[in-house]
Design goal:
By secondary structure, this protein is of the alpha+beta class. The protein folds into 3 domains: 114 residues, DNA Polymerase III, Chain A, domain 2 (Roll), CATH 3.10.150; 120 residues, DNA Polymerase III, subunit A, domain 2 (DNA Polymerase III, Chain A, domain 2), CATH 3.10.150.10; 117 residues, DNA Polymerase III, subunit A, domain 2 (DNA Polymerase III, Chain A, domain 2), CATH 3.10.150. It is 24% helix and 30% strand. The strands form 5 sheets. A 9-stranded antiparallel β-sheet has the order 12-9-10-11-24-23-22-16-20. It has an 8-stranded antiparallel β-sheet with strand order 4-1-2-3-15-14-13-8. Strands 19-18-17-21 form a 4-stranded antiparallel β-sheet. The longest helix is centred in the C-terminal third of the chain and has 55 residues. It is extended and about 75 Å long.
Length: 492
Amino acid sequence: MADLKSALPGFSKVIQKKSTLPVLGCVKLSLKPDEKLIELEATNLDETVRFRLPTDSKGPAGEVLVPYDELCKVVKGCTGKDVIRVVGDGKNTRIRFSLHGGFVDQTVEHVPLQEWPKAPCLNGEAINLPEEFKNTLKQAIECSSTDSSRYVLNGACLDVSSPTGHYVVGTDGHHLYAANSFAFKLDTSVVIPSQKFLLWPGFMDDGEWRLKAWAKEKNVPWMQIDSSRWTYISKQIDGNYPNWKQVVPLADGKWTKLTLDENAVEILLGVLPMLPGRDVRDQPVKLDVQQHGLAVQGIAKSGQSSDARIDGVRVDGKAVSTTLNRTFLIKALRFGFREISILDSMTPLLFTLGGKTMVVMPLRSGPVAPPAPATVRKTSPSETAPTEIPSPVEQQSNQTEQETKPMPAEPMTPPQRGNLKPQEPTVQPTETSAVDELLEHIEKTKGNLRTVFNDLNEMSSTLKRVSKEQKATDKEISKFRASLRSLQNVAI
């Protein structure tokens, strides 16, 4: 029972709380007397997990399905030294457990074995993964995207395209994490999906990992990771992972390098979450680097700013300042990065630590000058927006974009001919593209939302003030009533 109590939380990472198929809410138990092994399996069609338990049971070999919720209720009421038995005869399913010195049979919903989906069987040699791969995979998944429209970025890529070194990469378009010094015996790169079970400590700490990557069958690639007692099978993310290396800058002598000691890291981790602007979109924070050290500044929505001087930072290079999302900076410090390279306010920041690299895009703040009259995008002066890492397709389209020449500001007047007077030219209204109209509508909507938000804040403040005044009034009335009662009790 102690082993079962530790395993059931892992199945909760795969079994969905609400499913249209009752069979997906079950756990399959298999008894293999020859191997002296009990195997528990759960699936959601995209993922399958198996847990192996050694046993001395001499019962007949077979399989039975047990509803996960019912099994959890029984296990929760048992102690770690108890033993339960699952009995199935093809028509009924019972869980037998001890209670007050006796045994109780609890009948649960019977689900036919024929409905259980068969998991793919991955053949071939498994490759051993080094212990440091687990933490690297976890960090890469933390930097991956959660946007369903960019599905290929919803996981960590094991990039084996370079023969000199293999990488584990994760990115969401705003920041990128890459770690090398690996040598995976894989024929092609594998994109491991970001799933809860992979990051569950019970699987992370269950001994050495072994990886199998299966070629496509029916256009679906699969992967399998085995540990001491667990087996995890999942669909890979199918698609071409972007060429991430082209966005990693190469720091040279023109860059300013910051080296942080542990005291500076501890101060930053305490200061960054408390600076103004944490309720602003992208949570911007400004790094002001001078020859004598580093200062971090946060700016609230109201424009009020606050900064903090950070001790324990060595600066090599010129003075420079840049703005970035504080959550990315906190993440880099938490991952162990202690060296930061900055070129200017528009170039990505580069964090380095041995064979690991993290690239963070800076934030643009303030109004941006329009590149051409026909393609003006209206932006709010107070709006702060991150610069996404451009894809190769976007870069190519930007290079091949044709320049447009603006028309003259005033039309030419035709000359007078005989007794015909020149007519004023008819000025055609400037056509506005659908994109510009949509952007303008978005800006108006944002303005209206800001107004509504401010009104709600004012109403909330007014209600708080009224409530406070009401409490004071009630207190004075209570005092008056008490005084009136004391006067009524006075005898003359």
